[in-house]
Every structure is written in C-alpha cells, then in structure tokens.
Amino acid sequence: MSTPLDASDLAALAALDALLQTSSVTGAARRLGLSTPAVSHALARLRERFGDPLLVRAGRGMVLTPRAEQLRPRVRDALSLATLVFEDPGAFEPASMERSFTLSMTDYVLRVFGGPFEARVRAAAPGVDLRVIVNAVDDAERLRAGDTDLVVGIYGALPPELRTRAIISERLVCVVREAHPVLAPTKRRLTLRQFVTLEHVQIAPRGQPGGYVDDRLAELGHARRVARAVPFFQLALEMTASSDYLLTVSERIARQLGPELGLRVLEPPSELGLEPYALSMVWHPRFDADAGHRWLREQLVESTQALDGLSHARPRRRLDASDPTAGEASGRRRRKAKN
Question: Is the four-CA dihedral 270, 272, 273, 275 of positive or negative sign?
Fold first, then answer.
C-alpha cells in the first residue's frame, strides 16, 4: 500500500535525485545551488524517511547503499515527470492539436458566422472535432460541470466566475411573406395596431415562450398572440414564408434567408423601442490559460469581426431577470412551483 505524498516529500525529491546521481553531498549541493550544510540536513531527513543510510563512506568518497541503487532510476524518472508539469510547452501549433470541443449555440450562430468559423478551424486545426448542441437555460451549469466548453448567446445573471466577451451585435426586425394579404407591398414599418393584431411565430431557443418583445408590449398595455413557438431561427423563417404569420427576428439572418424564402423585412413599431443586443461567448475560467481553448475563442471572434460584428451602439448584453429564457428566472419559477 502506497503512502500519500506530502509537501516535504515533493520538496525533497530534487535533493534525493542530486544525491543519488552524484553520490556526494558536496556535488549535490553544487548541482542544486545550495549550501553543503543544507544538503547534509536534507540527507539526514531522507535517511530517516527511508530507514536507510542511502550514502555511506568508502575511503574518501561515498557510495550508494543497495536501497539507494534501487531508488536511483525510479527517482530520476519521477523527477523527470514532475519537471514536465512546469515545463514551458513551447509555441502552440493548432495543426498538431487533436481535441474535441463541445459548443452550445443557436442555428442563428451557425448560419450567420458558423461557416467562416468552421472554415478557419478546419483549415488550421484538422485534428479538432467540434460538437454543437442547442442552447439551454442551464448553459452556465454545463460550463461549470465541464459538459460544455464554450457557449454563445445572450443570458441573464451568470455565475460571477464565468468569463464573457461580446462578439456580435444585432437588432430586431419583422418579416412577413411577400404576398401577405394584410400588409401592402409598399409598407416599410408596422404600426403597433398591426403588430398586435397579426398572429406571430416566436423563436424560443431555450424552449421558453415570452421574453423581451412581450415585456415591451406589456409596458404599453398590449399583448400579442404567439400562434407558434419554435426553437430554431430557420424553421421560424420557413413557417412565416408559408403562412400569414409575423416573425420578429434578428436582422442578419432575415437578410440572408429572406430573399430565397420570399420574405420581406419590415421595421417593428417605433413605440416598442426595441434596442439592439449583443451575443457573447461564455466560458469557465479553467480555460483562461488553455492555449487550445484560447485559440478557438480567437477564431470565433475573428469570424464575427469579418461581419463588422459589434456594429450597434450600446447593445444590451444581458436578459432581464423577468425574461423566461434567462437562467435565473426559470430557476426561480421552478423553485416557486415546488413550494
């Protein structure tokens, strides 16, 4: 049965190796850059620890005991392994990285800048595997547990230790099908009355209906009917293209997919005062100094910078606590339901 190491054992490992390699207290002191008395004291402690003299006099020099001879290669190997822990890994080379990352993000991210991000990773790090899962209200817990390596989204209050960096800003627009029977082809902005009268498709990436738009309507004393709530941006756009529904959606994906789906983009009612928002990447601080993880984050940032990522002034960077898609809001509702 092995005995657990303590700090003194680890500190003595270098001294033991020097003594066993040189068979000399003076030689070991010279190798370690210590005084001879200090190494002599270290030898005394090692003798007590092993129950063996380790070095014995032989004429003018010293020789290793059988126990010390047995220890010599094992100590050398152990010290070499310990040295690797503190060794500078050298320049990071993405091309040599063989690793898997789990990313949590919406299909908006994959559609708008996932292509450039994928191309960058594939070209520079062919040994990297990427696994993408959908956003969830427990993204923060997944990061803490190590189930997810990086998430992209807009969140409510996050655990204070998590790192965040805004990477792209967006604004909300409305879309309807080109031949919508209620809205004239020349229409450029919806009135508030039209907005609340029409039936809506809502994108609920984390499975919770309601949110920012509904809160703004409630502040004005209005509500809308959400006829369909789906978790995916592209599906919501396709449903809108084949119906008379109205969809409020992020502008970039509306501009990308709208023409091919036969959709037209309209401005939301000015009374709503919808503010731009920012998507952030979030990670656990255990990866702050991880060269591979840091490189992956840089690829994500550079992919959004090519799109003039943070192009909106003062975008909101977090969800209100009342937003049902915010982690802390859903958590409170679950706790309340249990009481």
Answer: negative
DSSP states of 145-192: HTS-SEEEE-BSSPPTT-EEEEEEEE-EEEEEETT-SSS-TT--B--H
Dist. CA 213–CA 277, nearest whole Å: 12
CA distance readout (Å), 148 to 130, 142, 177, 273? 11, 5, 37, 35
Closest by CA position to 172, among listed 198, 190, 194, 152: 190
Structural domain including 240 reads: 172-272
Distance CA 87, CA 324 (A): 47
String of DSSP letters for 68-124: HHHHHHHHHHHHHHHHHHHS---S--GGG--EEEEEE--HHHIIIIIHHHHHHHHHH
Number of domains in the chain: 3
Q: In terms of C-beta density within 10 A (0-12 exposed, 13-18 middle, 19 or more buried), how is residue 253 classed?
A: buried
- Could you tell me if 89 and 291 are in contact, meaning their C-beta atoms sit under 8 angstroms apart? yes
Looking at the fold, whether 163 and 284 belong to one and the same domain comes out as yes
Tell me the C-alpha distance between 304 and 167, whole Å: 6
Same domain, 250 and 110: no
pLDDT at 307: 82
pLDDT value at residue 332: 43
Cα 261 to Cα 212: distance, rounded to the nearest angstrom: 26
Q: Which residues of the chain have pLDDT under 50?
A: 1, 329-339
Q: For residue 9, what pLDDT is reported?
A: 66
Q: Chain-wide mean pLDDT for the chain?
A: 88
Handedness of CA 239, 244, 250, 251 (dihedral sign): positive
Residue 314 covered by a domain: yes
Question: Do 262 and 241 touch, CB atoms closer than 8 A?
Answer: yes
Is 253 in the same domain as 315? no
Kindly report, residue by residue over 137-174, the tens digit of the pLDDT: 899 999 998 999 999 999 999 999 999 999 999 999 99
Query: Six-digit token pair at 328?
Result: 């802390």
